């Protein structure tokens, strides 16, 4: 129905109709209104709106819009509400139906509780190629949702440390999470409770964030970036052989097998003078970004090779630092929030 009319013109007529209705009601309230042939009652409002928009509007939304205008003349509803957007919804309609005017993608609610009371999500990562969503809670609950929202869950036995971030290793197919003193590697596909993953420890400083370096040149290894509370950024490369060769000999049984952090070559470089709040690798730029509340070196954007040498890095400063950042590929711009 809407394809056969000029929607912009119809919308202008509708907004004029609402304005006339408000003026009329205002005059009625002050006793200055005299009834004439142009009087707009509900019947006229309904008929005109139906003529303008056809079947794209529903009776209950027209009625709700009219009632909202009449009840509060100072707070005018948005025109979107005539199509059932942001207004009183029809509980009997199917949530999968799309509006004829505004195409809103269907949302799917995850009914799995994910975390228990007094726990919070500290990281959420989408893995588009595998249609997965990974979450990590502060108290050690790692969760993987697939496209059908089926869940793989493991509860990591934590000491006193809390999980501070997570990501996904695309080549090794492991979930990686960092705590204040360890790196957790979880094989979410594993069915055996005693071989679900590995823990790399001890880490000297408190790890605050983690990001995978997405490079598809080697299917047997993955590289991750991490930031800590002293301003250091770390570069760690993990291969499938490490899971066999670098296991620590521990006397007691543990949930995850332990890998000795001392056996890994982990280049690091101090880029900030305060906590590293976020770190991210951008495949399109072949660069990583890291931010901090440091007012001098607030945001760094450079090649990961800078973590292994001492050449100057591309950086800029913001008063009181940067807490978050993101990159838009289409516009080719970075946006930071401080």
UniProtKB/TrEMBL annotation:
Alphabetized UniProt keyword annotations: Repeat
Origin: domain of life: Eukaryota
SUPFAM superfamilies, alphabetized: WD40 repeat-like (SSF50978)
Xref: InterPro entries: WD-EF-hand_domain, WD40/YVTN_repeat-like_dom_sf, WD40_repeat_dom_sf
Gene3D superfamilies xrefs: YVTN repeat-like/Quinoprotein amine dehydrogenase (2.130.10.10)
Keyword Repeat annotated: yes
Protein name: WDR64 protein
The organism's taxonomic lineage, starting at the top: Eukaryota, Metazoa, Chordata, Craniata, Vertebrata
